[in-house]
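Tokenised fold entry reproduced for everyone:
>
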Amino acid sequence: MKIYCSLDEKEKSSLEDIGISLNINDNKIFSYTFWDNIKSLPKFISNEGLDFLYISLFVFGIDRLVYRESANDSWSRDFQVYIPVLNLEVWNENKKLVEEMLSFLSGDNWNIEFRKRDYTDKEVDLKNNIIQENCILENCNKFCMFSGGMDSFIGAIDLLSSEEGKNIIFISHYGGGKGTKEYQDILRDKFIEKYDLSKENFYSFYAVAKSGVEDTTRTRSLMFFANAIALSTVIDKEVELIIPENGVISLNIPLTNSRLGTSSTRTTHPYYFELLQNLLNNLGINIKIKNPYQFMTKGEMAQNCKDKEFFNDNIWNTMSCSHPDSGRMNGEKESCHCGNCLPCTIRRAAFKKANIIDNTRYRDTLYNSGPTARLNLNSYKLGLAKFNEKFAFLTIQKSGPITKNIDKYTKLYVRGIYELKEFLEGLNE
């Protein structure tokens, strides 16, 4: 499918057979709040940072607007995408890398044609008026992604417990549902109170494709990171981008065929991180990606949290579920963990591993709420039954190439499997 991307409604394509024309500044089609949340900057965002941000928004919009079922195999779509950029030369030099990174992330086939653009009128106005002195970003050298989930909650606690929090920026993103935003806001207020922060330490961005039909949205993470990456270019020093996620989820090993390969996220897979870091280096964006929990299970993260009291008091305000708003269709007014999806199951296993009483509200704790819950439980048990520790060093390669720290990743995966197994076996006790 040919997709023509633009930032200006006046720009029309002369190309034939365009399937979708995507202008992300057309509020009838797409909405995002990146500029709404920025009141001051020490300097304007670099051309490469702007390009990266808009590319991520275009990619997310495309991902949402095109059904996977329309693909020949009902999953991997073929995209021919035309994207405007400020720095045409550098993007053409990195075209193959961008395509490889996107294809790995989403499981689709991406072919991108870049074209030269100038600043939009809005960008010119922002560049002339948004720059102010005494911006909090001037003194920051660490950004931490903050989703409102259990892992990012632990990551923020550990970071704030070990160094001065006023120089750390937390970046959040939310979409159409309410299930994520409400948890992010609760935790933000808790952190501000506990660690003497201000709201200026927190940036929250929103983006939605208003006619989106595809729910897998595997490219959302790129947009999540792009908000932080674009912001980092206003700082005249290296920025560390901390992405807290347990290493088992990062490996994205399919437990069963029902979650094979592209059906689950590769957001923090080591190979994806390597591609992304290489691209940022090539773009001259001075940011280093780091996951401090690359070799920890979720349970080990909980066990080793640096402020156990704050963790225990507030862990219930985190959201791990893959579909927290699903209960609203049945009349529920508040978002809630389903209790039986894989993220919920891994969360529950982590509490057991860390020997913490789990007071999280789950819709279903016994996997008996319906056929989907029973299918989930049976698939987890089948995956565990087929697990062979002797071949774990091969299994970790299923979702993407692992070329470094193979022994550490293998041992991590084995620990993660046993963490999950102990929890599921305990359901019958």
